[in-house]
Structure formats: structure tokens, C-alpha cells
Design brief:
Two copies of one chain form a homodimer.
Chain A: H1 7-14, H2 18-25, H3 29-32, H4 36-49, H5 55-62, E1 67-72, H6 78-93, E2 97-102, H7 107-119, E3 124-127, H8 134-142, E4 147-150, E5 160-164, H9 166-179, E6 185-190, H10 195-210, E7 220-223, H11 228-240, E8 248-251, H12 254-267, E9 276-280, H13 284-288, E10 294-298, H14 300-316, E11 324-327, E12 329-332
Parallel strand pairs in A: 1-2, 1-3, 3-4, 4-5, 5-11, 6-7, 6-8, 8-9, 9-10
Antiparallel strand pairs in A: 10-12
Helix pairs in contact in A: 1-2, 1-4, 2-4, 6-14, 9-10, 11-12
The structure holds a DNA duplex (30 and 30 nucleotides).
Amino acid sequence: MNGKVSLKDVAKYLGVSTALVSYVINNKEKEARVSEKMAKKIRSAVVKLNYQPNQIAKSLKSGRSNTIGLIVADISNPFFSSIARIIEDEARKQGYIVIFGSSDESAEKSQDLLNAFQNRQVDAFIIAPVENTEKQIKALQKTGMPVVLIDRYFPTIQVDNVHIDNFQAAYNAVEHLINNGRRKIAMMAYDTNLPHIQERKNGYKAALRAHGIRFKKEWLMEASYQNIEKDVADKMNEMLFPDLKVDAFFFATNTLAVESLKIINQSGIKVPDKLAIIAFDESDAFDFFYSPLSYVSQSLEDMGKGAVNLVIERIKDHSKKYTNLIIKEKLVLRKSCGTKTK
Amino acid sequence: MNGKVSLKDVAKYLGVSTALVSYVINNKEKEARVSEKMAKKIRSAVVKLNYQPNQIAKSLKSGRSNTIGLIVADISNPFFSSIARIIEDEARKQGYIVIFGSSDESAEKSQDLLNAFQNRQVDAFIIAPVENTEKQIKALQKTGMPVVLIDRYFPTIQVDNVHIDNFQAAYNAVEHLINNGRRKIAMMAYDTNLPHIQERKNGYKAALRAHGIRFKKEWLMEASYQNIEKDVADKMNEMLFPDLKVDAFFFATNTLAVESLKIINQSGIKVPDKLAIIAFDESDAFDFFYSPLSYVSQSLEDMGKGAVNLVIERIKDHSKKYTNLIIKEKLVLRKSCGTKTK
DNA sequence: CTCAGTAATTTAAACGATTAAATATAGAAC
DNA sequence: GTTCTATATTTAATCGTTTAAATTACTGAG
């Protein structure tokens, strides 16, 4: 019925001990001085019986599962699913498989996933952490579990991470808007203390300041993760009606941008004539918006591969120095931040 | 150092046998007649030592891993990542976690993933199968592994699956184009013998026939999975230049639609004036295209949840009758298939 | 005080692999 | 024919659980 052939079955089939079979399978014939004749016999029996080693048993013995746990805010967000794809490929190349979970920006769900994955003996975690999970990450580290943070990070924690220079990226984007003649620049961000978003806000403000523009509190619009759609609509409508209060928008993430674009589309306000836009990350929506969006592009390739490599290095050497891998971002310029009409 | 507390540690700490601890942890105190006093002692020790059961060991013993293997063509495709998200949530609700892999439309990669996941003792598979993998699926079934196919399917295989009625969906979409005055309707599909795509092609042809329109071979454009971008561009350019050869397009998937829209955007040909469009699935691109696209919408929610439920039922009862769960699709009408100008 | 009967706990095998240590076998040297 | 060595193979413990079966402890009846 259940065709599963175990190592023991192979041994029994040949009338030899399991040890011999194990040695041969793991190419330890030399060290274990298995005779060539025997090795050949075993190898052909393995093929004949279609023996497949039970990874669970191997894991139990070795304490390693060759599995990486990936936790992101939401796997259905193309930003994360694209990274997931890269991580999957890179991990498999190195003999690991990936289990994933979406934390939904909830610290509680994050902890649940951490526990569930740890009990499954993942060898390491790659995490895009959510708000207020510093303690979780710290606790995880204390157990000796290799962890790499991606996209987001906590400066207060000693841990490997991979991300762009968010301050500089935002600064450059906003500076570009200013250099193109915009002076009243609003930003849509999340209402969160996650450092990567804070840095984007800081970069935005710093660029304004550097160009002698006085930041106005009402320019900074914030949406909560839990209520994006409504929050974005409300804030955007306030900003656009009854009269347009700014001449440019800077969007802190692709989700915020997409939601905002819907409102702008309805409003009839012309981009870039009346309104310049720069967004973060990428999206099909940015390409198909009637005035294709300029955006800050992060290399997901570099980020995903970097994360896998860091985490595997850490698996191999628990005590190596922590790495802060800063990925180069670039500003992709298109129509949406073009010239303003008077 | 490695803080991992085993059941044995708990037992040793209390000076009792591991059996007792195991019984209490698994709430088998009654059957095993563990004294209340002891149960209490054990429970508090478990908390105090922060004992977390090793799922790997449990899996080895039980032969069940509470893990579902999800194989799709490409997790970075929003269609699949959205399903993945739904599957993840539903599976976790039922105590399962999900490992995923992208087969890249390659039968070979598909087999690799199948093997890797099977060795990890997944309890079941949810698969969006790729071309020429009928034997793989059949072989998998023969081992007794629960399998559910999603989105795609093989009529020749007895297996649980979840999908829409692709023939009818295509038929309805094309019929709608015809009823709106289009007569020369092209379709962009994949060059594949995967039944779901075949059915879409058949539905398209049947709708033409039913309305007395003679199908022309050159209307059916096909791209290969391996070379989508170039194939789509070539075929579309042929169809659009030097003169527009049709008055409507029907796109068989969201990827094909998005790639095609890029060409249409460049061409300057007006939608829906000169060209009506209906696509399959959803995409931000459809919303932001200047003439928002009509599309055939599949309920990913129903599909994902349906798949998880079917697969868990099958885990519990290997011999239950196979289910063909047909998800209702619907045609969402927007501007892109509107009225034609003469 | 013994014995039966029930209650409480322990023992030990098992899941499928790995591997150090023990043992068996064969050949060479004297 | 011993003895020694090198080669080939087996034994048995182990990883962390589960669980049937065995054992021990207790209680009350006679």
C-alpha cells in the first residue's frame, strides 16, 4: 500500500546492516571502508527499490531541517511575493526549502508564526518584521536561531539585515521634485514607528529643509496598516478638495501609491501638470497610470539573494559579525514628475 | 546555550518518566489515568521550562507533518500569490503550514519539487500543474498522497480539483464582445495543451461559431510560456500593424493581457473605439489602463479555501470519492468592451 | 495479613536515519 | 599454526516523541 521504502528495507532486501547502506548513500564508503562490490550492490538496490531518504528522520538526527522560514507582512503583496520567489530560488540552489507565513502587520500573528516555524525546526528565519516585534526578534536571536531582517529593520537590535538607505532614497526623490519646480510636496506614509518608514519621512523632511522649504504638518498624510483603503481615501480627498493644496506627492510604498492613484484618477486632476508624483517600489499600476509613475526602485534580486546568503553564512558560523547589507536603490524617472504647467 | 528543552528534560526535572509528561501534554490524562496532582505538576513545569514540542520528532513518530506542499507556476505572479495567501490562512486555521515552490512551467522542476517536498513528508499537495505532468500527478496519487489540483486540471486523471468552467467563461466573454458589435475577435493564448487553456480557446471558437462568425486561424495568437514577452510583442505587432486586423481582443490570462496592453499602449490605437478588450483574472494594470479592462473574475477565495478543504478531507479519508469543485466565475464589465465608433 | 482489583507510573519499543565502537574476516608474516 | 594487520561489516546508541504493555503502589474486603 504505502510504498515508502526505508533504509531498513533496502538493508533487509540485501541482507546487510543499515549502517552499510547509510554509508554508501552518503558517499562515506571511503571513510567507512565499504567494499566496492558491496557499494555497487547497494547502489543498484537503492535505484531498484526507489529508495528516498526520509528527511524528517534525517532532521531529527541532525537537528537541521534544511528549511528556512520566511515571514512577511503579506505574501499576496507583489513586493513580497517577488522577493519570495527570489528567496525560493536561491534557497533551493543551496539545498533549502522555504515555508512562508504572512504576519498581516500584527505582532501577535508574527509571534504565532515564529513559534509554529520554530517547532518545525526551521534552520533560520528571513523576516520582514512588523511593528513592535523587537522583543520577538531579540528572543529569537537569544535561542541562537539565525535571523536576517529584510526590507525593514531595527537599529536597536544586533542582527543581520538587508535593506536600502531609506533616508537617502526619500531625500533624492523629494529633491528631484523640488529641482523640477515643485515646492508644496505632500507625502503619504504609514502611521507606524517602523524605522524604514520613519527614515523615509525623515529623508522627505530633510530634502525640504535643505531647499529652504518649510515643512507643513498637514503635508504628511498617514494611513494605518489596518485601514489603508479608507484612510488613504480620506486623507487624499482632504488634500485634493475643495482645492488642490500641494503640487506634488511622494508615496512611501507601492500599496499607498496604488490606493492614492485611484483617488487621483477619479479627481480629474492632471499629472504631472498640476501634480507631480514619485512613488516607492514597483507596480503594474505605475506603468499603466496614464502618466507613468516615477519611482524609487529597490533591487529585489539583490535583497532576496543577499538575505539567503547572509542567513546561510550565519547558519554555518553563528558567531560571525553581523552584517548590514545596504542595497543600492535607484530613482526611475518617467512622466509623472515632469514639468508643471502654470 | 541552545535553550531547547525536550520532553525528556521536563521529565528529568520532575524525576518522572517521559511517558507521563507526554500523556499530560497531549491531554490523555484520562485514558492514561494520570493523577491530577501529577498532571498539575507537569503542566506547571512545562510552562516554567517553556517546553516546546519538537514537531520533527512528532512527525517521525506519527508519519504526519501537518505540512501542505503548494506548487504553482510562479509565486511572484499575483494570481498565484493571492491564492497562496488564502491557502496559507485557511491551512493554518486547520493546523497546517505551507511550503511552496514555483515550477516555472517546467515539468522537470515540477518533479524536483515533488520529490523534495515528499521527502519532507508533506501530508498533501495542492498543485497548479504544468504541461506534461500527468504522469507525475498519477504517480503521486499511486503512492497514496492526497493531491488537489487548482486552476488547471487533467480530465484524464481521477483526482480532486478546483477550477472554473473555462469553456463557459470564455464563451460568455466572447459572446459579450459579439453582442456589442464586434465581429473580428482575436484571442491571445498560450501555446500549450493544458486543458484549461484549451477550453478557453474552445469557448472562444464556439462563441464565434454560435454567432455565425467564421473563425480565422490568424486570429488565434499563441505565446510560449518560456518566451512570453517577445512572443506577445511579435504577435501583437503583427495584428496591429501595418493596419489593425481585428476589432476586439480576448486575453486568456492576466500575464498575457498585461504584456499585450503594453503594446496597445504604445500603438496609439484607441480602446474601446477601435478595439474592445476582455481579459482573464485581475490585475492592477486592468484598473489603471486608460480604458479600464473588463475581465473574467475567478473567486480566488473560493478556489483557495475549496482546495484546502478538499485536501484535508482527503487526508482524513483516502478513499472518498473524487470531487470536481467548479467555482463560479463572473464577467466584470467596464469601459474596455464598450461601444465602437464607426 | 493476604489478596484482588484498581490506580498510577514506568518500561521499552518504535518511527528512520547516522555513526562511533565493536566485531568478524581474510591475508600476510613468521 | 599462530599472531598481527588491514579490511569489511555489524552492533547499538542516539535524536525527541508516542504508546502498548508491564510494573508498582495503594485501597479495601475478607
